[in-house]
Amino acid sequence: MSRRFVVAAVLAAGLLAVPGAPGRAQNPGGDAPRKPVGVTPDPALLKIVSTLHNQKITGFEGDLSATTLSDILNFLSKRYDLPFIIMTEEFRNEPNPNIADARPKLAASRLDGLTVYRFLTTVLGSVGAVPMVRNDHIEIVPRDAALREVGLPVPPRTDDSGPPVGPINPPLVNVVVEERPLPAVLTELARVYDVNVVVEARVQQNLKGVVVTERLLNVPADTALELLAGQAGLSVVRKGNTFRVTAGSGN
Known about the structure:
Elements: E1 6-7, H1 43-54, H2 69-80, E2 84-86, H3 116-125, E3 129-133, E4 138-142, H4 143-150, E5 172-181, H5 182-193, E6 196-199, H6 204-207, E7 211-220, H7 221-230, E8 234-239, E9 242-247
Parallel strand pairs: 2-4, 6-9
Antiparallel strand pairs: 1-2, 3-4, 5-7, 8-9
């Protein structure tokens, strides 16, 4: 049975699909970076992720807790040219079955200055929803559905209160870059997703000259960091809420 959905923005016809294979880095630790071999991300996908990461919220007026999710997504769609689809069928058995009419359980003194990503995940997290970046749009799905899709454990529901709200931890990250230095990619990932990343001094030289073309969508932060560090022959060890990039097995 096909899923019913609400379209929060009109998707332009003819958008190209992005091939599935990720890119790979070249010249780890070398002096002169070479063009990486891999699949170049589609411009539509690059634009979506760049907007989420770098654009700041401006011009949102009114009471956030009195605004429906549909109206919030329409605001984001018009102001930042982001296409959204709410997967309403997947919310049918959720505490908020009419998710498009749900109102965020939030009180904010100031919204200007938040990145679009931070604003969107905070709003959706308050109603048990998660944004999932696709090739040419952003899908809004229940938190549990997102966890199942990425292979993370789904917490049991012990009563009728529904699934836990708030962001997934570690967060689901999107790394969509074309010929960018790996250190810059790690820095952006840490900035956007509030992830603590420490690169040991003894391996910093390994990152120099590593250029990546990569497409990772909705990947747990620890997995994304492991994949990225691995392109420089390094590994990642998690210590509490900090990820340490180190050599070898990380011992």
